Protein 1
Amino acid sequence: MSLDAVLQTFYIEAQEHLESMENMLLKMDEGECDDEMLNDIFRSAHTIKGSAGIFGLDHIVNFTHVVENVLDRARDNEIDIDKNLIDVIFKCRDHMQSLVAVSLDEYNAQTDLQKTDSDLLAALAPWTSTENKQTVAQNNTPAESQLDNKLTNEGDNENLWHISLRLSTDCLRNGMDPLSFIKFLSSLGEIKHIETIIDNFPQVDNFDAESLYFAYEIALQSDASLEEIENTFMFVQDDSDITILPPTAKIDDYLLLIDKLPEENQRLGDILVNCGSLTRHSLEQALIAQSTVITATGEQTVTPKLGELLTEQNKVSESIVSAALTKQKQNKSQVSEGKQIRIDSNRLDHLINLIGELVINQQRIELLSKGVKKPQLTEAVDDFENFTNQIRDAALSLRMVAIGGTFQRFKRLVRDTAQELGKEVELTIDGADTELDRLMVEKLGDPLTHIVRNAMDHGLESIEDRQAAGKNTKGQLKLAAYHEGGHIVIAISDDGNGINKERIREKAIEKGIINTDSKLSDNELFHLIFHPGFSTAAEVTNLSGRGVGMDVVKRNVEALQGSIDISSQAGKGSEFKIRLPLTLAIIDGFHVEAKGTHFIIPQATIIECINLANHQDIKGRHCINLRGEMIPYLNMSEIFKLTPSREQTLADNIIQHSPKRELVIVQFGSDVAGIAVDTLNGEIQTVVKPLGPIFKALKGIGGSSLLGNGEIAFILDVPQLIELAIANEIASKVSRAESMNGQ
Amino acid sequence: MVDKSSQFLTFTIANEHFGMDLHQTREIIEYAGITQVPLMPQFISGVINLRGEVVPVIDLSVRLGRQPITIHKRTCVIVIELHTSEQHCVLGLLADAVNEVIDISASNIEDAPAFGAKIRAEFIQGIAKKDDEFIVLLDAEKTLSPRELAHLVEAELQ
């Protein structure tokens, strides 16, 4: 692990701590406030400060230190927590985020950052202590700070030995009393501190009165020699784990000890202190020495060169950093080690690609095995299919992340936006654990932001208006995520005024988007807001109203193969539903053929398949009556102007002679339509292969895929296909009308 | 212009000889059918499955303003790899026959004639002469620029 990588860990962790701070602050802002939350915030700030100190990022340390002090005072009930304080802490948190993002040099170069720094410190002044708390550089827990003070007061760490005592469980049985060792030690010098570690203490049921469960960390001030101290433990040293660190011990030895200690969840700070004052003292010194190296080279940013340089120059310090950070990570938010690992997303993508190939290969083998009529082979191939599917699902689940993290970020956005707009808004979140493809989660942030802002700006009314309408003054905004028929739906709803259809209509006419006599359904009307350049806000606000947002929203969602539905009721509110596919890499599809060309229709869109021969077209139109419902359908070979290829002509003749035509009924959003094809070949799992930039303009086809026999099939993009059919129909009507006029 | 000797892969389409910088070519495969892509302009013959990769195949003949290539037993696909500033792109080209790899020194390459070649001048890197035959050296990046091909597809679809 190079220093560079450790620094990277610091950035990631700092980010996580800042996020958790934000979440806690939001909760406090909502009026929930308990000691645990304050502790959490304090811990986050403290950890950031501590880690930043390790890297010599003084700008973070100095600022965070003051914040931490205020938090500490709040924790000790010395100051009251009110809205003002929360506001300032919010700002401080944001500033810490900016500080973490820059290096010390960049910070020194950016006067605005320094200004914010001093502004915020001034804002914090009412809450900062009048006592000189600055001397306690790293006060962690009250106990710790006491100890800290004690040590500083004594100011003399000479001849301080550190003894780590892990006596054997059988110690008592062998007639040894640990107390006698400690008593004897006190005859050699003065015992400064004893920390008893009781982590090994068992459940009452398993408790054996003759076993020893205690371990000790002892700081001993003594002029005795190593030999004398060692002799104390002469009778137990064979089956016990005893480490004696002399006053001259190197940092490495302490690091070894930290690593060796079995107490995994022990807070790093505690360990440092409990290990004896020496460790803290020396560790700090070592850290100072190290940061001097860093500052001397003048760049403590994430440059790989520096990392390597330091690794060569200063191996010791690097190991300190690693050990310290590792321990810190272990005690972070009680997530025990081994439950979570971080992986480079590229590696994950590579694995998923490979598994995609595996799926194709498996299908090929299945196809080949059908020709060989051997029961054992068929069985083996079936098993193979079963396992391939499991591997595929497991691999895909690696890419899935819960949407909750994204939703969580909106709490802050909503809070700030509400303040800016002078509205009262309550955000509720539902289905935070719904999982989505990581890629999608990344790309959803922007569209969601736009919709949420729009809902708050245009949807929710001002406090007075809400009162007048007899509503709760607090506007309700809801973010929800759930599964629906092979899709994931993300719904953003508000209980505001609803979308004003008339306003949209007027505006669209004014902007020349529709004609004065256009007849539009509600849905079509609502979708006009996604038209580029459309904005109904009478005045352009800071948040929305520039008309650049919503068309971007639509484009982003479509890029994810999703769609947006809008529903709205005047006076009651509106709902935006973003419908997304489960994953982008592999889809379950239905394999069909038209004029010898292979197509795959995403399974999630299919309702049923029927035989077209059994249904009559309604009055020559491309519509059938399906159980009393009129379903329009499109002809695959017409819409794609398919002509049988040379090889296919012969086979195709046969198909043309047979009147058997199949109709696949698909649904997308609220639209239901049929797709007429020649043959149905059944369900297939397929890996999506993008068609490449050249085919970007091709509508109705979302990608390609390889079939088991190596042939290429095109994956249909159903909504685009329906759009294409509508566009074609309009075009043909226009041309027909023109030709009739011509006559 | 090339200032020293470079290697070119030469191939024939409808009795005309063409050359392409060897560095841009990846492999030559036998023509074994092609999957047509719906609604595509004529210069896109379709796509092929190249060991699990879906690769578009261009009818160079159409792209250069000539008749579509006639598929026969010896038709082959030259797979080329373009590294443009935006992305790298793999394309197949249909050719009647692939001839040889030859060294052509810079001095043997002449500028494209301003007219008369019946090919857009910017597509031509130069003209080389070998055994009384002219070889049109194509500038693959210009002739097969993915961006321009995408524009042509878009125009065709509208």
Note: The domain at 6-157 of chain B is CATH 2.40.50.180 (OB fold (Dihydrolipoamide Acetyltransferase, E2P)).
Protein 2
Amino acid sequence: MQRIQSRIGLAWVVTSLLLAAACGPALAETPTHGGILTFVVPAEPPSFDGHRETTFALIHPIAPFYSVLIRVNPDNPGSPTDFVGDLALEVPEPTDNGTTYTFKLRQNATFADGQRVTADDVVATFNKIIFPPAGVASARRAFFSMVDTFYASDAFTVVFKLHHPSAAFIPALASPFNFIYSAKQLAQDMRWYEHQVLGSGPFIFTEHQPGAFITGRRHPNYHHAGQPYLDGFRAIFAKKQSLRVQAIRGGRAMIEFRGFPPKSRQDLVRALGEAITVQESDWNCVLLVTPNHLVPPFDDARVRRALSLAIDRWGGSTYLSKIAVVKTVGGVVFPGHPLAASADELREIAGYWEDLEASRIEARRLLQQAGVPEGFRFKLHNRGVDQPYKIVGTWLIDQWRHIGLNAEQWVQPTGPFFQTLRSQSKRFAVSMDFNCQAVVNPLLDVSKFVSNDRSGINYANYQDRVLDDLFDRMNRTPDTAEQRRLMRRFEKRALDEQAHMLVTLWWYRIIPHRSNVRGWTISPSHYLNQDLSTVWLAP
Amino acid sequence: MTRYIGKRLLLMIPTLLGAAVFVFLLMRLIPGDVCELRLAGEGAYADEKAIQLCREQAGLTKSLPRQFLDWIWGMVRGDFGVSMWTGRPIIYEIGLRFQLSLQVAIMATMTAILLAIPLGTLSAINQDTWIDYGVRAFSIAGLAMPSFWLGILIILALLIGTQALWGTPWMPPIQYTPIWEDPVANLSQLVWPALATGYRYSAVAARMTRSALLEVLQEDYIRTARAKGLVEHLIINRHALKNALLPVVTVIGIEFAFLIGGLVVTEQVFNLNGLGKLFVESVGNHDYTLTQSLVMLVALVFIMTNFIIDLIYAWIDPRIRYR
């Protein structure tokens, strides 16, 4: 165990050094004030309410208008464990055996209309998120199941009391969707924020033209001294990927924050040379294969195991990363996180073996044992999105052909795709699925694998109380070594012994942007580090 | 004539009602709904209670006949309701995009007319010559090439060409500026999609002009005009072309109506915030109210365009009289 931890530690040091080397020149520069950042966003937010929505289309144009209580460190967003205060002065250490967190707030923060941000605003906000009244939707309510109560102990202090110690609390609190709203506005109309913007972030909302753009200007009294550096920003909605790439090439936009496939990176670098800077990172999104446990023969663990054993993840990483936004081989936890499996640990899981030939021989044996005939046909249900769903789906069909399975891709648009997944019926046999999260918070992120009567996002239709128990135990222990041990056990059961779901490859984020955009550092999620407070434009 | 106009206007009602029933039922056949898509569409956990609440707020829990009657009654009163996806008034959503779509449709139609009628005429009066072959090749290429693909080629050509010439790539603006605010910015964005769609549109109209004119040029009255020594350009312009334009006007009218809401892919290629893009997004979002209103708008545009074409017939060909 010690050896594994020291390896992880070494990996972190190396990564940090590489990042520091890459960012060295930028860090040495003094940010300059002024300029308008123009960026493209692939979709438009359905509403402006961060508590209700789940899409990056809300975060990219709207997050710059809001502050949050705590956030990932904007100077080190690549780290999954580095959190700093935003409205809070700092991230507090828990007291009362890990069940009480006391947040001291900055006293200089103001909303765009001049009101001061106080503890009442923070309490009203989290009341809306954690205990929403009837008629108000809250997308992240389930992340705060450990929270018992919270209250303002004075005008600038908020206290959270938990039912039990939880390592998942701070990452859940740091979600970029937890915009702090004005208590006064919420008291007047709990749904006011669906169509209005009033925050205490680095920018003040100026205009929204539906279907076209959202603009903001600098908040002159922003609570982080000297920031933001930009005079304003313009977020232009552009649905077509090729157009977004061309917009950066043709100077109509400087950056797109979601991510482009490798081909677009090459095109931009080839066309613009040094005028383009590329930032890359592992992405806290993973593509999964979900066998439906209600549909034979996928109710048989041997068959599911065979599906996993057929997949050449190590080879696929090399080939697919040239054409799709996937790259990293990993287990249930975001690769690079202290709770993630090392390469050696992964190689002990079915489907991650070094000897692919042996893996596929074992897969054929299992299929034979389960009575699955050679050439067995089934449909792979997939989402009608090229990157990376259809590309990886096509690759999987070829992988399964190697063990005598004959899969056919059944593609549906996003709406019907999710309706089929959520139907809890036999409407699909095997489906592509994904797990995409904002803050890297493995203890909660793996909730997708717990029984479907406990997890609202487990579409494989199974109950596994052993997994549930492991999940509960690792969420309640404050001991990180114990968490890691339980996570390995959880992973082994979910991916190998029961092969409830199959992890394919983790996504890989590629952001090519105009080189004059400075102060923005890529993070493992397209939801994080998007308030633009540190971004500046080089002359 | 007045009686004819009144009758045609009355006939619009059952046509629009038929379109309303059709789109209403068709939208509800698509699996999933706006609430499910909005709250769980990104794969996030969504509480069933929250989804149910959203459905109640959007009126989706009412019976289908009740939903239909509510919608129709709203339209009769001029209340199109609010978008289920954004919550904004539908009139506002459509009004914002209509201006752009109308301008592109007008510019594309002008491009098509300016290209199609002279080229079709030239081709017909020079039948089976190199001019005819050239025009036919030009129009067949226009028919074969989807306008969105031509749009992509135009953008790439502009990027590569300007970089080769001036060292800095240039592409058309990707956000709309109204023509009265900044005509240069407006035209530098819209001229390219107008060219891309106008070219395909002109190809259809040029072929129609050519074949109609060839047919008219075989008529007895043209032979008579030539026999009495009338100069050729008067024969073509005054006697032949005017009569040959009837089918061309029909094609131009129908294409114009199509352009109002049908530039689905071209609008995305040029990032135009028009009705076509709104159409695709509203269907993708299962936004029933907005999709239904858009279909009704397009149906109305088609019906009105056909009606106007019928009236233009009488003006072009005085032999046509309506009862």
Note: Residues 32-257+531-537 of chain A form a domain with the D-Maltodextrin-Binding Protein; domain 2 fold (CATH 3.40.190.10).
